[in-house]
From TrEMBL:
InterPro entries: Mito_RNA-Proc/Resp (IPR051240), PPR_rpt (IPR002885), TPR-like_helical_dom_sf (IPR011990). It comes from Aristolochia fimbriata. Gene3D superfamilies: Tetratricopeptide repeat domain. GO terms for molecular function: mRNA binding. Keywords: Repeat. Coiled coil: none annotated. Pfam families: PPR (PF01535), PPR_2 (PF13041), PPR_3 (PF13812). This is Pentatricopeptide repeat-containing protein. PPR repeats lie at residues 203-237, 273-307, 328-362.
Amino acid sequence: MAFGLLMGHNVLKRGKRTFFCWLLVQGNELHSSLITPHIGTESSVLVRNFSELAGVMSTAPVSTPSNLLRRGKTGHLPLPHCTLTDPKGQDLDFINVAHSHLVHTDWAKLNTLSSGLSPFRIKHILLKIQRDPVLSLEFFDWVERQKPNLSTLGIHAIILHILTKGKRFKTAESLLKRNLIPKKNPSEIFDALVYSYRLCDSSPRVFDSLFKTYAHMKKFRNATDTFCRMREFGFLPVIESCNAYMSSLLDLDRADIVLAFYKEMCKCRISPNVYTLNMIISAFCKLGKLEKAAEMFMDMENKGCAPTVASYNSLISGYCSHDLISSAVKLKTTLIIGHCKRQNSERAFQIFQHMKKRGFYPTVDILQMIVGAFLKNKDYEGAAQILLEMLERSISVAGSLLLEIFAGLSGSGKVHLVARLYAEAERRQLLPEASSAKWDRYLMAYWHLLELFYEFCASLRLVMSCLSSISNLNKLDIRQLAALVL
């Protein structure tokens, strides 16, 4: 595969600012022909400043309509306006009749008009029904079936404007993937959308959909060029589309380009969300820049994004991959404390289990905090699980905590768990001292409850034994059964 330099939209300049560009390979794979990565050193920076990259790139003239337009006071290119000739005579009659059939969903009558279709008539019909994206799509699909050779790039552009303005983004992206991107040049698609933008009174989301579709298809060269051209006209992708682009890059381990793109986002004042910042943390970790990752993590609150579990996990994974185990354990402990404070005992327990599998155990205080979170949620079985872990490691448990768990388990009928915990604590000599009157009273109540439980089990076994010895249950006298139970 021949590798080349991607120049966004070549190297476009706004005054002293050099336009956004970086190195990408043609196609789905990425390659840097100017910078050789050296992981583990300061020279591991894979992307230079955009101004430096621009200096070594060719500045061939742009062969698009953009260079024919003068910038306004905002520094953006004005949107060109493409007019469509008003229909007259037979064209007008055909369009009105077809529109009437469409509005009344009379497809049988519409089929009789298929022979008179033309790109000019199709465009006008679409513009007349553009307020109804569902009907517009049905008509477009009908044209595709009746006269597929009439579906020009201009007609595709109009239906894309209609769909995105009607918030049918997935349908628009599907149409791009199926009909346009595999067959048309990226600049042709963008130009068609630009020139029909004002005609359809469209929204910037049409360009956003194009950018996101390229990102999902991992066509990074085209996605980058689309981003650059969007910015020239004053359009910017939404943060979800930027996230899709960065996520696809991270899948190919191109953390360098992710960070470069994030800088461009900041310059354009595209506000990141928590998913964006999580990916930036992950990108820093992949490049071994753990201090930068930690700084970003600490700065999330200032950016209006509270750290999530994924934020912690990204940073923890980075620490572990670089053998900074103590930092990873400290961070996991912080995460457990946070979940306990929010009474999210289930998640705290999951993190504890994950730590245990890796051979690390939290401190006694952290374990008791997890138990406390379970108790606040009335999850006595969860608390018992942690308590068993503590007893197995011969960690003494506060008598008040043990009493609360025993009381909760007994109240919910989990007497077998009480017996198991008591036996384990007694075996390891971790029971509270007998001098505690409260503990003594509870033990007496517990043993009484246990005796009743065993008596009930014995009675139940007797009943089952008697019932199994009776050959014909249908003839069993109800008084006999009552006598057996009593």
